[in-house]
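Possible regression after last week's pipeline update?

I re-ran a chain I had predicted before the update to compare outputs. Posting the input and the new output here so someone can diff against the archived version. Not blocking, just want to make sure nothing changed silently.
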Amino acid sequence: MGKVLFGHADLVGGGVTDLHSHVGIGSDRGIGVCLFEREVSVYEVNGQTMFVVPAAMNGMNLVAAIAAVGNFKGIGGTTDISLTKTREGLNYFMFTTNIQIGDAWWADGCEIDPAKSEILKGDIIRVNVEAVHTTPPKGLTVSAIFI
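New output (post-update):
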C-alpha cells in the first residue's frame, strides 16, 4: 500500500508561520512526518506536529525511527529529534536517547524505551526538535515504524 496523506496543518501562531507539517501513514504500521519543507531552516519546536493513533495501530510498539534533513546539512553541533506519547494527559518520551543528526543527511541512532513504546488507540504522538545545529539544516522529515 502506498503512503496515504491524512493530515496537513499550516501552524500559525506564537511566531510559527513557516512550519508546514504533513503527516502520512502507510500500511497501518508507520507514520511519516515532514516538519519543515525542503527550503525552510529547522528550528526548535516541541509538539506542534502530532499524530493520533487509530484503532488499526492499537497495541503496536515503536520499533524504529529515522530522521533526515532535506536540502542543507547543518553545521556545528547536532539537530536532535524526540517523540513524545501523550496518554490521558500524561507525556512520555518514547526514546531514552534522541535521534541526533550530525554530519550526515540522516540519522537513526535513537534508543527506544521499551517501557514506553506501546501505543493505544487515542494516544497522541508528538514530534519534537530538541536542539538544532549552530547553522541550521533546511528541511526535516521523521519516520517511525510500529509492529
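Follow-up from reviewer: compared with the archived run. The two ends are 16 Å apart (CA to CA). Marking as no regression found.
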